[in-house]
Amino acid sequence: MSNLNNQMVNKYRNDFLKEVEANVEEGDWVKMCMQCGVCAGSCPMGPYWDHPPQEIFMMIRAGKREEVLSSTSMWMCTSCYNCIARCPRELPITHIMHGLAHYGKRLGIAPKNQPTLKFSQKFWENLMTNGRVNELKLGITLYFIDGFVQGIKNALAASGIGLGMFKAKRLDPMEILGGHSVKDKSGLKAMIKKAQEIEEARISGNQ
Amino acid sequence: MTDVVATNETILVVGGGVSGMTTALEAAEAGKQVILVEKRPYVGGRITQLYKYFPKLCFPTCGLEINQRRTKQNPNVTVLTMAEVTSLTGSEGNYSATVKISPRYVNENCTACGACEDAVEAEFDNEYNYGLDKHKGAYRPHRMAYPERYVIDPAMIGTADADKAKAACKFDAINLEMQEETVELKVGAVVYATGWRPYDANKIQPYGYDRYKNVITSVEFERMNDPMGPTGGKILRPSDGKEAKDIAFIQCAGSRDRNYLKHCSRICCMATLKQTTYATDADAKSTVYYIDIRAIDRFEDFYQKVQKDENVKFIKSKVANITEDRETGNPILNGVDTEGYNRYATPHELVVLAVGMEPSLDASTLPEGISINEHGFIENDGTNGGIFAAGCASDALDVNRAVQSATACALKAIQVVNRVAGSEG
User: Fold this and answer.
1) What is the pLDDT of residue B274?
2) Looking at the domain assignment, is residue B73 inside a domain?
3) Terminal CA-CA length for chain B
4) Is B2 an interface residue toward A (CB < 8 Å)?
5) In this structure, are B264 and B346 located in the same domain?
6) So what's the pLDDT on residue A203?
7) Which tens digits make up the pLDDT trace of B219-245?
8) Which of A34, A52, A86 is the closest to B291 by Cβ?
């Protein structure tokens, strides 16, 4: 954990809600939850969550920092927006879930082997190489995400789909050699770096 | 032609429900001239459709009878039924109202004998019972309807059925030539007592009121429990007509929800608690799904009494959605409760949606500048001149509070016409 993060932890240890309000996307909505439970009941992935959104909101208000940020729950969100559509108080629940997941990741306490987290990381790395998603490489990366042997099995199992996509010109095998990219790669990287600096500065400003 | 005498010392009351009747009677009994305009063919409004009142569980017919008698006996009140105010202009002490009176096709000779009803065949959805049954083309809206006179549905006009009704009447009370009339009234003060309507449950898509027969509204449930109602007082499932023994109540169906009505409708918690006593009386079990029970002020003891009833269970959860077991027709309530975060999918035989109160005011008939809040209720904020809002035209209120508000409005209106009298004389 970085020094900055440690400072944050110390500052807000006794007031997790304030920390969420300051640092999590749309976090200032958390206090508006009236615990009706419609989000939890409406979530199609709900049965697979350890803590449905309604419970996450209550845990935040109860100061259960570690349990919330290291939870796999928010990573289960598929952004279907059912909760936002039905919430009687119009809380942007989907955004808060992604915000919490992101914040847990930033602090380094997000669950290590959560598949969505792993996929998101691979996707980001793939995207940042050239500024464009290299679908061939992304696919191969995902096949081998659980080890070499499983990767071969996955690749063989999906070979029919790959061939079909190739025939339909949806998959370019030449992408394996570097692949297409944005025109100004260094410009994009400078832009992302600047955005990250601004975000760091914003969060350190909350100290 | 309807003969109505009105001056700028007259008080116009728009809406003849319990609020409008109260304002009209209080003002009339204080010696003021009052014109009461009611859209339906009878006065009493939505209280006529209630089986019992909370918290005393007494019958609204009792107070209704008293108010109807007061109306009948007081020469200062002129009641116009089937009448609507279509426009209102002017200022305090000097308003001019346009009132449209729809034809009833039955005159004051009617003795309510019912011969016309027996003679006709056509049937129409019975609005009084929220469409749960039908009424004949010639009908008395309900058994205590005042004025005690039959009504001919306008769709009957020009049919052979209407002629049958006319032929059956021994008192020459049916006049099929009656026309719509418009009268202009000059009045000093106006009290809007336009009341409420149940929120349209079809709009609450996840609860499937439009799809599942055994999902009904609280107002329909109320009609079912009336022994003179469409099911003879039995709680029957619309799908198969069997008595429901396991009933779920869903609170805040349309209220406290930014997707529907933002405001708390205030009466639904108490109405549901009252309705669980109907269920218990019918040997049925009740399950109340709620966000929080708002048994306002002195009604907390009523809530405690219901909590002690073993047949009533409370689950703290706003139901997320309803599905249906096709075989049994049982609605299945899906959600997660707040006390333990347990996921449930519970079937019930009948589901009652405690629908919210929506103001039934048509704001386009009001003069410019009248203060209306974001929920559609009139604000009595002192800038409305001689126009006041009584009962549910001003807020979501129970009968008790509506009558209090109506009495207050009577006093305000009396003050306005007294000022007019002073300036003139």
Assistant:
1) 97
2) yes
3) 32
4) no
5) yes
6) 77
7) 999 999 999 999 999 999 999 999 999
8) A34
ipTM of the complex: 0.86
- Reduced to 3 states (helix: H, G, I; strand: E, B; else coil), residue B350 is strand
B263 and B369 co-located in one domain:
no
Nearest to B291 among A36, A41, A42 (CB): A36
Q: Is position B108 within any domain?
A: no
B-chain residue closest to A88, CA distance: B257
Cα–Cα dist A37/B343, whole Å: 10
Confidence of residue A174 (pLDDT cuts 50, 70, 90): confident
* A41: nearest CB among B258, B291, B321: B321
Q: What is the mean pLDDT of residues B57-78?
A: 96
Which region, left, alpha or beta, applies to residue A81 given φ > 0 means left and ψ of -120 to 50 means alpha? left
Instruction: Provide the domain count of chain B.
Output: 3
**Each residue of B257-313: pLDDT tens digit?**
999 999 999 999 999 999 999 999 999 999 999 999 998 767 899 999 999 999 999
CATH code assigned at B253: 3.50.50.60
Kindly report, residue by residue over A17-65, the tens digit of the pLDDT. Answer: 989 998 999 999 998 999 999 999 999 998 899 999 999 999 999 999 9
| Structural domain of B213 | 198-357
Residue B3 lies in a domain: no
- Say if CB B71 and CB B27 are below 8 A apart: no
- For residues B290 and B397, membership in a common domain is answered with no
DSSP classification of residue B408: H
Please state whether beta strands B94-101 and B181-187 pair in parallel, antiparallel, or not at all (unpaired): antiparallel
Give tens-digit pLDDT for A142-163: 888 888 899 899 888 988 988 8
Contact, B220 vs B132, CB < 8 A?
A: yes
Structural domains of chain A, ranges and CATH numbers in brackets: 3-111 (1.10.1060.10), 115-196 (no CATH)
The helix/strand/coil state of B141 is coil
Alpha-carbon distance B254 to nearest alpha carbon in chain A (angstroms):
9
Distance from CA of B346 to the nearest CA of A (A): 12
Q: Say which residue the tokens 């380094």 belong to.
A: A108
Which of A35, A36, A42 is the best mutation test for B, with the most CBs of B within 10 A?
A36
pLDDT score, position A9: 58
Among chain B residues, CA nearest to A56: B341
Does B396 reside within a domain? yes
